[in-house]
Amino acid sequence: MCRKIRSLLPLLALMLTSLAASAQNVRWNSQVEPLEGNRYRIVLEAKIPAGYHMYDMGPYEGGPNATAITFIPGEGVALDGSVEQLSTPHRYFDQMFQMEIGTFSGKAQFAQGVTLTAAEATLKARIEWMICDDTSCMPPEDTELTITLPEGAAATAAIEAAPTTPAPETAAPATKDAAGSKGLWALIIEAILWGFAALLTPCVFPMVPMTVSYFLKGEGGAALGRLRASLYGLFIVLLYTVPIAAIILITRIVGGDAVTADIFNWLATHWLPNVIFFLVFMVFAASFFGAFEITMPSWMVNKTDSKADTKGLGGIFFLALTLVLVSFSCTGPIVGSVLIKSTSGEFWTPIITMLAFSVAFALPFTLFALFPSVLKKLPKSGGWLNSVKVVIGFIEVALGMKFLSVADQTYHWGLLDREIYLAVWIVVFSLLGLYLLGKIRFAHDDEVQHLGVGRLALSIVVFSFVVYMIPGMWGAPLKGLSGYLPPLTTQDFVLGANTATAAPAATSDGTVGKPKYSDFLHLPHGLEGFFDLEEAEAYAAKVGKPLFIDFTGHGCVNCREMEARVWSDPEVLEILRNDYVICALYSDDKKVLPEEEWVTTDAGKVLKSLGKINSYYALKTYGVNAQPYYVLQGTDGQPLVEPRGYDLSVEGFIAFLRSGLEAYRNGK
To answer: Would the CA dihedral through 61, 62, 68, 73 be positive or negative?
Structure first.
């Protein structure tokens, strides 16, 4: 392997290419052609991006995703026959699918005959398709066109197939932060700690002498020196915070809160960004272990560094920019972790957490700029910095697993169950402990002649952590790690656990059966419940109990913490098990439902996956787009008490549940 990678550009280019490719897709438009009398022909045309092909209408059982077009007539219009393909597909025998298939390139046309029985009418065309190039395929896409008859009654607009976010009704409540104030403060504190910790990374610490030497040259007296040092810190904060704020603000202006929430939800739960983040963490870890060196392009750093030698505000700004660029290889993963933990769809939370991180990161450099003599008391950079780099590499491996776990949970791949995840962490931190003891050395490490008190203390902490994790292999709850581990329901073997049975579902015909989606969704702690609101409401009415609605998600760290630290309390479990009917609604599950269960939003978008439908219901009904969010519902479908978000107070949660029971009994 090459010993040194001089630039991050290839990696960044790969990420940008992948993200850009996911946005490129087919553009559809419609045209109405009059025939004899009151008969018309609707022609749909697909413009396919260059280099891609789209499958014809098939069907292909066990093969590729064929193009599917369904016309839904309104009042005053009737369909004549079925959809026909006007374009002739290129047909060939596909070796992978072992069948003959047809594809379109460039463009494709489809037609549907209709008869108008009123002065004018409308109908909708629902379209699903998938495009591929010679090496890979895009995920299947869908869109919906509204067509007005006769031609000229209304403009026929071309609609570009791009994901449309659900829009809440006009009367929907304002968007809320379900994480609550305590959740936000926890994120801020974590961001601040990461900001201070970044100073000790090998990319950042060597910038301290550069900072001090620059400000030692300052002229103009103490007052001007304090101003220049303060501006230096301010520029560092702005360089980290403004780009994030700009991206969020632009999405809010363009599409409103729903678009911002949908983008963050995509980043937090879609397999593509999560797998990319996982690979990035692994690349950084390999670099920290000494496999190669990751640096920003030398021309970029040199150019900003040369401008930093100039006097005035410009020089201070470019000094701050040099610091941000040079430290990127160490702070990049930290920044990513901070942002991903806070991206639950809120507008302000990512900005505030990034601001907290950057202020903490900039504060030491501001102090060094104010008091250059402090540098003399700091240890010189040397072999200890390489040890710090290796320790960070081990932590990168452990933290990177979280991104792969989120993708695994939301798409039900079954690759990274809880015991596998724990096994990786146990091995990683065991190796870290051996490294701290000097039993493992990497290429750039100095030989450990004797074991210092610091290394000994850290090794004791690391091995204690390993011992703490080992019982988790047999089902121990490990509450301290609940937010990072896959749920206990994914573990194959739990010592002493009873086999949980799902709650019976009261169906419309009075029969009792297994709850919907319980074959791949489960409740924690062996609780019984539902994953479909209608089923849960029917069963709650049958047994005469209030409904406990849990808006949750596979990638929701706060949800796992609530389940491990609050739900696990014996009194909470007793109330949930005996006094409520539980319904867990996952907002990020990618399971595509049967067509009869699809939901059409007020904006006309058809939602097909379980997660999108649940997320739309939460936003439309309660104005929330973050999890966890708990609603206690009565027989009239209305909340019994004020819903509750993320709050680790067990006593408060018990009071919340009991207040719901009291309101339910008083309302009967």
So the answer is: positive
Q: Has residue 84 got a pLDDT over 80?
A: yes
User: Cis bond leading into 379, ω under 30°?
Assistant: no
Of 323-327, 331-335, 496-500, 540-544, which range is least confident? 496-500
pLDDT at 583: 96
To the nearest whole percent, how much of the chain has pLDDT over 70?
69
Q: Specify whether the backbone of 105 is left (phi greater than 0), alpha (psi in -120 to 50) or beta.
A: beta
Top-level class of domain 26-160:
mainly beta
Whose tokens are 């990461």? That residue is: 194
Place of tokens 């929701």: 556
Cis previous bond, 150, omega within 30? yes
Average pLDDT over residues 625-635: 85
| 505-667 homologous superfamily | Glutaredoxin (3.40.30.10)
Cα angle 241, 242, 245 (rounded to 5 degrees) comes to: 90
> Hunting for tokens 């003959």 — which residue is that?
100
Q: Which uninterrupted H or E stretch holds 144?
A: strand 141-149
Domain spans, the chain: 1-15+182-378, 26-160, 381-494, 505-667
Q: Report how far Cα 663 is from the mean position of its chain's Cα atoms.
A: 36
pLDDT band (50, 70, 90) for residue 483: low
What DSSP line would sit under 590-611, residue for residue? Answer: -PBPPGGG-EE-TTSPEE-BHH
Helices (H), 152-270: 180-197, 207-216, 221-269
Q: 43: which strand partners?
A: 31, 111
Question: Does the structure show a pLDDT above 60 at 103?
Answer: yes
Tell me the pLDDT band of 254, cut-offs 50, 70 and 90: low
Q: What is the CA radius of gyration of the chain?
A: 29
